[in-house]
Model the fold of this input.
Amino acid sequence: MTRPDAASTRSAPTIAEWMTASGVAFGTSGARGLVRAMTDRVCYAYTRGFLEHLARCGEFSPGARVALAGDLRPSTPRILRACAAAVRDAGGEVVVCGEVPTPALCASAYAEGMPSLMVTGSHIPDDRNGIKFNRARGEFLKADEAAKLPLRVGVDAAAFDADGALLAAAALPPVRDVAGGYLRRYTDFFGAGALRGMRLGVYQHSAVGRDLLVELLRALGAEVVALGRSPGFVPVDTEAVRPEDAALARAWAAEYGFDALLSTDGDSDRPLLADAHGEWLRGDVLGIVAARFLGVRAVATPVSSNTALELAGFATDIRRTRIGSPYVVAAMQEAVAAGHAPVAGFEANGGFLLATDVLRQGRRLPALPTRDAVLPMLCALVAAREADLPLSALVGTLPARTTRSERLQDMPTRLSEARLAGLRGAGGIDAARDLFGALCGEPAGIDFTDGVRMRFEGGDIVHLRPSGNAPELRVYAEADSPDRAAELVTAGMAVLRSWREVGGES
Done:
């Protein structure tokens, strides 16, 4: 494939124009869209734009290496080949890391100062996919996204057919092992017997890290039973657990007598951990447990995360952000610059980010400032074992605040924003009272950090927010008990459905 010349590049579409034409958006988790829209030509253009931005930042030049990996979606190998072609045509060297968790790819690439990209759609259905871009030492942040959008990227039209498929693509090089280093990261820190005596289940489904997780738990001394392996892709969302996954966890817990059940989302950067009863823990609660175990002093977390963090009292610096790991990473960087340590972040989906090294019992855990599913689950399990408590009892040592969330799918973002506009205006308190006052009482305040987060005098919280990468509207709720939080989510979903119905008629 030939590279576009300078003249053709000057008249080429910008990345923003590529996005508009293709329908493949670029949000807080990178580029995502329908598989049919993510043609080879579009994925090639996005990757060339990524590399051009890195070149301007001094992180890419001809001969530089770029690491690539992917999840287990059927469309991932094709997209990987298109991305690899773009790296080669830009003069880079392709380093293929195979089918591994996103944090395993990042841990290896960051350590070597190597840009990387992960082909994954995370938890969304397999009719969609995505590309997550990483800079040489950390995630692609919002400032990077803004700088990339105006870049002009031309492609050689003769290299693609009428449907945007590559006409020829070179074979990928042999896979480089990065899983081994990821395993050693945790066996070295926690120690070979850290989970000895524990009986654990692993819900494998189609998570890319499903076998690696089993291997790691066994290396730490646990008895492990692998369950639910799927030949097809299963869209497990750690923030909105499917009813069938909730039922599976309870059934397996009753049948096998596990101390805990572990799983992850599709690219294995977001955790799911269930207790001995098969009840999945909320990701933000898991994040608090992990941060406390690691002795973290400064925490960055989205505004939607459980406020038990503040009530727990172990963190001296808490920074609330918009939802999305780029915002959490930026806030962690600010905390590090302010001299805080150790510094970590977590999201309501359970992904845990470590901004600084951590020392515990003479062992050092290196920083990994990207979402990781393994670390928070191991922290919770080791903490429970050291305290000689069931996992549920360990969680019970936190202040009593419960979060719940649900999502309304097929809700156009434009309609979501139109409905939320009334809550953001001058009459927001009155609108909040009209929507939820009968259930929650008098509104005490509204936070517009990300979406609309309504706080009521009795302590209830209802938060409405459109997804940043899918046509979904989410409702988050927090209360003093699980039943109350569930009641708030049910009420919130009823409001969202009424909005969609009215919108569909207009």
